[in-house]
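Here we describe the complex-level prediction in full. Unlike the single-chain runs in Section 2.1, the two entities below were treated as one system.
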Amino acid sequence: MNKLKYYLLPIAVLAFFGSCKKEFLDKEPISTITPESYLRDESHLAAYAIAQYGVFPTHGQWDYGTFALDANTDNLAAFGYHSQYVPGELRTGQAGGAWDFSTIFKCNYFLNTVLPRWQNNEITGNATNINHYIGEMYFIRAYEYFSKVRDLGDFPIIKTILPDEINALTEASKRMPHAEVVRFIITDLDSAITLLQETAPDGKRNRIGKAAAQLFKSRVALYEATWLKYFKGTAFVPNGPDWPGAQKEYNKNYQFQAGSIDDEVNWLLDQAMDAAAAVADRIPLVENTGTLPQTASDPLNPYLVMFGDVDMSAYPEILLWRSYNRSLGISNNVPVAAAYSNDGNGLTRGYVESFVMANGLPIYAAGSGYAGDDYISDVRENRDGRLWLFLKEPGQVNLLFNTSQGTHKTPIEPTPNITATAATSKYRTGYAVRKGINYDGQQYDNGQSSTGCIVFRAVEAYLNYMEANYERHGALDGKAQQYWKAIRTRAKVDPDYAKTIAATDMNQEAENDWGAYSAGQLVDATLYNIRRERRCELLNEALRDLDLRRWRAKDQLMNTPYHIEGFKLWGPMKDWYSDLNYGTANGNVSDPARSEYLRPYEITGKETVYNGYSWAMAHYWQPIALQHFQITAQNGDLNTSPIYQNPGWPLGANLGALY
Amino acid sequence: MGNNHEPIADASIQVKRSNTGAFTNMAGEFTINALATDTLLISAVGFEMKEVAINGRSEINETLNVTNKQLNEVVVVGYGTQKKVNLTGAVSVVDAKTFESRPVQNAAQMLQGVAPGLNITQTAGSLEDRPSINIRGVGTIGQGSSGSPLVLIDGAEGDINTINPQDIESISVLKDAASSSIYGTRAPFGVILVTTKRGSKGRSQINYNNNLRNSSPVLLPKMMNALDFATYFNEASTNGGGGLVFAPERIERIKDYMAGTLKESVIIDPNNTDRWHEGYYGGNDNVDWYKALFRDNVFSHEHNISVSGGNNSVQYYVSGQYLKQDGLMQFNQDIFKRYTVTGRITGKINEWATIGYNARFAREDYSRPSKLTNTLFTDLARQGWPTLPLYDPNGYLFSSPSPALGLAEGGQDIRQNDWMYQQVHLTLEPIKNWKIHAMVNYRVRNNFRHWDALATYNHDVNGNPVIYDRESHVHEDAWRENYNNNSFYTEYARSFAAVHNVKFTGGMQTEYNRYRDLGVSRNGIILPGQPVIDLTTGTTSNGQPATPSVNGKYQEWTNLGYFGRINYDYDGRYLLELNLRRDAASRFREDKRWFWSPSVSAGWNIASEKFWNRYSDVVNIFKLRGSYGKLGNQNTTDLYPTYVVMPVGTSNGGWLVGGVRPNTANAPGLVSTLLTWESVRTWNVGVDLAFLSGRITTSFDYFTRYTDNMVGPAPELPVILGTAVPRTNNTFLKTYGFEWELGWNGKLKNGMALDARLVLSDAVSEVTDFPQNFTGSIDQYRKGQKLGEIWGYETIGIAKTQKEMDDHLATLPNGGQVALGPGAPGAGDIMYRDLNGDGKIDAGARTVANSGDLKIIGNNTPRYLIGFTLNANWKGFDFRAFFQGVLKRDVFMDSYYFWGASRSGLWWSAGLEEHKDYFRADENHTLGQNLDSYYPRPLFGSFADKNQQYQTRYLLDASYVRLKNLQLGYTLPARITNKVSVSKMRVYIAGENLVTFTNMTKLFDPETIVGGWGGNVYPLMKVMSAGVSVNF
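The structure predicted for the assembly as a whole is:
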């Protein structure tokens, strides 16, 4: 009897576990959220949408931020040159590249999940805000799709979540003609414009609002319109000769939605004008006082300081901006770069010379009053108020407040250090700008600045309207004239643009400005001056390369390489330096025999652009990496893939452009 | 005396009735006071104990038999023990001797190289680093599931690193499926059974031992001096068409500083004259950052004490350990401490019931600089330019950034990990040979971690502090695990007709593991000396409120298993074992939860057959074994692998809204609906042999292990899917190899006892099927692939002249080497061989069908793992040497630590002493002409692509043999120590990692080559130690 209780113990335990096995073994996650229970409240939608804002290019922590994104164009020379100007050196990839759908997936997951719940009123929260956040996601999908059209042209249109099954995915990989993709983008933007509030719920324009969507719509429509117009008759437009899309059954009989390519262009230009006017008619430009503060008591010029302000919500012209706060670990280095060396980025001579005089005349025009370029101070004299304001001159003040703070401040603009060896101290061309400056010493700790970053600025809508209007009708309507004058008045340039047009010599402009060309031909003086206005107003604002591509303004480089130049080093300014060395592999400046202007990429002779920037047609778009063809092909025959390569690019890895 | 009439010295003679004892002298003679009716107990190491009745004799001559270890040795196996001679599975045993006097940190390190097939890899030397353990090589490729063995300490899952090595009695390594299938899906990749010491009947034993150590780094890379570095970097930059990195003016300063004529390590910033210039552009110091950051030698010590004993009804064992190890960090030294206390008591309740209670507590304290993270090893050489000032001219640490300031003043990271193991074990034996066991294990693990990040300061020209790292914060977190494991099992053994021996074992086991954690960080330390959450402001340095970051969660898993085993043998000759287990895991949903794990093994003791009698003098043991079994693997890394998780974040957004970080959410990943069990099948055949009365023993095992339906890499699908492809059970892996163990022991004429043991093992894994590699890509798993393959080009050599390169390129008319990267190749660049003869060098489509000029140039799987131990004993002296190594392994080190000037550009490059062997055509080069260089001409950025391809020339041989441990000890003669009531006293010196034989470049330690970042690690330590062990 005594022993029995010991036998009972294991038997009891066995019985116990035999009876409640299921309970013991059913363990569900208690600390994670399942998809079924999420995206059901306004706050969920807000959290999801804001997590996708990384699609916008903004300042990183260690450079000149978005102000350096015009590098590798005729505007701005980066510390190093770009292989896109060396045909053969820009290569096809093995894997990766722009053929990527991760952001699109995130947008589609959201829209596929939320829209049915929204239509059934299953989402809790403020209805207006719910609409707004859904609008944000439409906008982000459109924004992402536009970057695909820009980089790759034709692209699949995916609106749903695809199964992880190879046949379905291969089938979905069909590239739609870019005109069709742009139609899809505009549809999404129209949805966004309908749903978005005038003022986003945050109240500070840190989130997308209606005007930002309208501005972006005008950008997309103008992009596609000009692309179709200038690439018409090439493989770069649907149904063009040798258009690779025609090789595929599914694209063979493509029809533009407007009927023809010209009608499509006109439709797009109308869309661009409507959307641009919606912004330009209600958003005024920020005032330019025409002053450059040199002491702490001088009034700050809003048009100067808005690009580097900590709180940008005070400037209505800024439609969307990103806020930084070093204390939260979100910071940048833009003021440090703005005050010194622009992180190795320098304005080109060609760009500086495109700015007209304050009286509206090009510098070469008779009676312009141009003081020459022996010194940087001469270059600024009597010029377009924007050049005068933003081009830095040695001796000017860079710091006005809290001057004892900041580890990386540059209180007084030095003579440009063109022989420095590092990007963070090298004045690449001798010409540096102060866009993004902040006059407070607190913003000058390395990588620790809290100044904001502009994503959309309303003035672009003014410029988009002018260009679309002229491209559509060959003349400027009242609105376009009004906008142009507003821009020039703010820029402190004589608003009489007709005077500038009359004095413009296209052959002179062609020397400096790639935008003087489309498809290798000079454009007319009015269109050119519209483009010039855009170039000068959007100084270092990351739109130059996009513009040059849609204008097809690089073809001429194929016959006539372009030499990037900086300031006139071999004039009197050479006396600023004592350590100049040229003509050897260890040189630090270009040889005066090549040019009296500093040529930043023609110093040692080992540079692959030593003989100037060239171009290949294929470079207008990026190639698609080999892997994507392989995985969608049958039996290793890449031609069976529904994907086709972009014009001028070979089907392989690590290969240069064919033409 | 022994069998051969040789005298036995130091044999113990004891009167059975009392405590009176004596020892034999060198001639084997002894005297003892005893009654004529007494019985003497005679024992000596290596011999069987003997009881001798005096029967009135005054002179006693006795012969002792050499212990026949092979026949009587008992091995711990799953839920029981087994005579080694009757084992049918693949089991290796490690005895307590392995853990003596090793000046290392934990038991796992001591296990390296001692058991064939048990692979222990320590890939970094930092104090908290744990060696990784696998049995028989790669079991699963670690995509969502773990292939680590199950470690059981006295039957309960435990962490082998926390156990006091001196508490270990023995370790069994269960390698094949037949041995481990009784643990089912918890043990698909083998089991390590640790049995700890227990008290035994008889006199109380007290042991104290210690170990005092001096450690130094095994290998620290050496940096170039500042001038060589500047020359090298300038050349790398200008070779690619870039400008000088170091202007001539700065080169002059570097020269002057090195010559001692310039005292300042950095100049004043010309634009900001109260500040020192940024170090990268203004520094002219000459610092070897490895020397600056790591100490040459550090001290550590360890103390152990144990007390054991008992009588017929109660036995006890109590031990304690203290270990303090100092780390190598020069600034803010890292320190590791471990405390363990073990207590075990076993008592008889009555004739047929025994109860045992066992408690173990272990605590680890570890502190290090907050900035001693992986980033340090990523950045050390690329940021630590020799020219970068360590101290500014006023003598303050200077950062721009550099590693030293943050390490020294950036705060502390302090961890305390506690383990409390408790075990109650009730054994009933109601009928002779029928035992019932009930065992309850409970383990509580608490990990607390604190770190603080302090504001740091540089100093300006006048010595005033200038804030450098502005934000301070305190982080605290706690993690707790509650683990309960209950086992109930019974065993019954019976023999029939004297020859049929049957044993039955059966039972069940439950496991329940719960985790929770809690953490918080808050900004704004009020007083740097008191980094406590309560003493933080919650605001940032500019006074803005900062949301504290908090986290906390719960997780749990359970497992339920039923198991049974039948052992049968016929007269000890024919052996058979059958195992079956059925498991249910909470990690899978109800319909896929259960899994059967069956196994069978059999053996034939040929040496026990009658016909073998005539050979048995020479061959004492001759056994053939074979086994087969199948196990599931439930060790998924995710505890809830079948649930989709919505990724949400709290206040972690990078896009500020209203001045604060917003909450975020993202699209959930896809989870395959097909996810199910991985199953592991193992075939094993083995042979055990013993020759010459066990003087030579050997055993050999050959195995093949199939991992079926392994959760493999996600299939490559068109990227239009837009998200990561979910993992499924899509890979079939085969691992095969052998284990060989050879032992010898003997005695020399002069009385020196010697024994030697060699273990050798090998395992290779091969993908037998991966149906989802649709393109045949060589970057994906594919059928027939051996794991670890390295693809690369075949190098012809470095072109010494432009002409040599041009001649080479002339043989490649269809594209030369253009596809390898930009820039025209010339003198000092690599020439590759056109293997497919297509007139150009490229990688084709990187598929098996078209791999261009790539071929398999090597394999990074460590092959032929060897361990060799030599022991010698002579007149109280003992000597031990232990070598461990890997006899074959290739690695390709594609990091800037290997290349120096790298294709990732200036900021991802380094200049170490070995990189100086680069191509220099110039006869007047300041470093001398170097046409027969190892490295090509230096280039930064993509221009270096053409030289830094995977290729035969730079494939490194990571094989090595290392003298892991060398000991020399002396045991004082018992007749001396006895006088001070010490039964045994041993003094010793021991060394660890003393000598390494390898072909590896001095940049890397072959043992840690896959650790750290790009082969750059916290170095392993070379240790010299001394200690004493005293038994009372």
